[in-house]
Amino acid sequence: KMSAMLETPELPAVFDGVKLAAVAAVLYVIVRCLNLKSPTAPPDLIYQDSALSRFLLKSCPLLTKDYIPPLIWEKSGHIQTALYGKMGRVRSPHPYGLRKYLTMPDGATATFDLFEPRSEHCIGEDVTMVICPGIANHSEKQYIRTFVDYAQKNGYRCAVLNHLGALPNIELTSPRMFTYGCTWEFGAMVNYIKKTYPQTQLAVVGFSLGGNIVCKYLGETQANQERVLCCVSVCQGYSALRAQETFMQWDQCRRFYNFLMADNMKKIILSHRQVLFGDNMKKPQSLSDADLSKLYTATSLMQIDDNVMRKFHGYSSLKEYYEEESCLQYLHRIYVPLLLVNAADDPLVHESLLSIPRALSEKRENVMHVLPLHGGHLGFFEGSVLFPEPLTWMDKLVVQYANAICQWEKTKSHCSDTEQAVSGQE
User: What are the AB hydrolase-1 domain coordinates in residue numbering (predicted)?
Assistant: First the structure.
């Protein structure tokens, strides 16, 4: 027996070393891909020193506290973005709202969902959040439902635009869908709210593409800013013209995201194929069967925009479409408090685009740019180790900022009334 034991071959030590090296390599890749060594920190803030910014820093703790995503995986912008894209939110509520229908001048039917507040507002005022979702999104998306439910509990009425053609159970009534920067439907919703609730004030909120639309809407005319307390834009890219080149690059897998988003847009457009491409006297003259053929083979949003989307409004080129529909040329015309939120690890918004909100917030006292290290594209999940919480950092920040602006306006109004009273006594 002793001789048999001595003759049994043993695994060479070098093989154990290879196994250890393989395990170490896998762990290294996991640590790098998940950014586990990335620190948690407060968001980077760019703003002008003013009475308003000092009040906001004091009234919004989330601006100065660390944003801490779930430890194991949420320091990856890709995972945050993928989880948002696939799940939206976890354990999302189902707020009850009423769907409203508005007929547009060209025969299109705009729809939005109206949600009443479920508690008294912190300053006892009537405030309505007018909300524009991201690309091809609507009020039934989980991230919108989660945010609306939280806003209702904080005393806000919410009106959520359903992008034209995005709801699967609502047919188009004219040969036109939503586009990157068309503000017609959002403006119609805002006008309805102003007319129906003459005492209400507005907090304007836009997510991703919706951020572009709301900023463009406010900057188009000074009248659009009447009764508006503030505007919050989350994860938008500011300039489609400057973004299009970065969206064709494989850096940060943007080309892959571009393909996925284009595929989703194709499905939505094709679901309305009969209205958009059928025999309709009202359809754009330049929209033809050839464009439908090109749509089938499109692999990027730019191809879809060039062959279909720009033609809804008669733009002669993709360049003209992106220039005219981006909010870049309108941002400097916004005078209400403006919060621009992006994530440094957003795989859809190239870092070069962040120079736009940075430059604006360095010049304008009403603008603050908030840039946390993590969050991905509309993710911003929070949690302990593995599982995210239902409410995100983004949900809480938007409501906290709106609350602070309401308090700021009430304080200014009180001071003004006091000054007038003192002046009258003199």
Answer: 128-383
User: How far from chain centre, in Å, is Cα 154?
Assistant: 21
The pLDDT value given to residue 423? 54
Q: Does the annotation mark 53 as catalytic?
A: no
Nearest to 327 by CA among 370, 378, 288, 367: 367
* DSSP symbol at 201: E
Which one is catalytic: 113, 305, 306, 346?
A: 346
318 and 355 share one domain: no
pLDDT digits (tens, 9 = 90+) for 386-404: 788 999 999 999 999 999 9
**Catalytic residue flag (residue 346):** yes
Q: What is the DSSP letter of 292?
A: H
Q: Backbone dihedral region of 227: left (phi > 0), alpha (psi from -120 to 50 degrees) or beta?
A: left
The token pair that represents 147 in the structure block? 């945010």
Same domain for 118 and 56: yes
**Element (H or E) spanning 44, and its range?**
strand 44-47
User: What's the CA gap between 406 and 247, in Å, rounded?
Assistant: 38
Q: Specify the pLDDT at position 93.
A: 95
Strand partners, 127: 201
Residues 6 or more apart from 257 whose CB is under 8 A from it?
A: 81, 347, 348
Query: Which position has the token pair 């991230």?
Result: 143
Separation of alpha carbons 375 and 208, rounded Å: 13
Active site residue 121: no
The whole domain housing 136 covers 42-239+336-412
- Residue 144's pLDDT is 97
**DSSP, residue by residue, 70-118:** -TTTTT-HHHHHHHHHHHSSSS------EEEEEE-TTS-EEEEEEE--S
Phi/psi of residue 304, each to 5°?
-65, -45
Q: How far apart are CA 301 and CA 309, in angstroms?
A: 10
CB-side neighbour CA atoms (13 Å) of 276: 25
User: Looking at the structure, do residues 275 and 173 belong to the same domain, yes or no?
Assistant: no
DSSP one-letter code for 310:
G
DSSP 235-254: S--S-HHHHHHHTTS-GGGH
State whether 227 and 261 are in the same domain: no
User: What is the distance between the alpha carbons of residues 190 and 220, in angstroms, rounded to a whole number?
Assistant: 14
- Residue 193 tokens read as 């709210």
Active-site residue, from 76, 305, 377, 395: 377
Whether residue 20 is contained in a domain is answered as no
Kindly state whether residues 251 and 121 are assigned to the same domain: no
Shared domain for 136 and 75, answered yes or no, is yes
Low-confidence ranges of the chain (pLDDT < 50): 1, 4-5, 21-34, 422
Catalytic residue from among 208, 233, 239, 326:
208
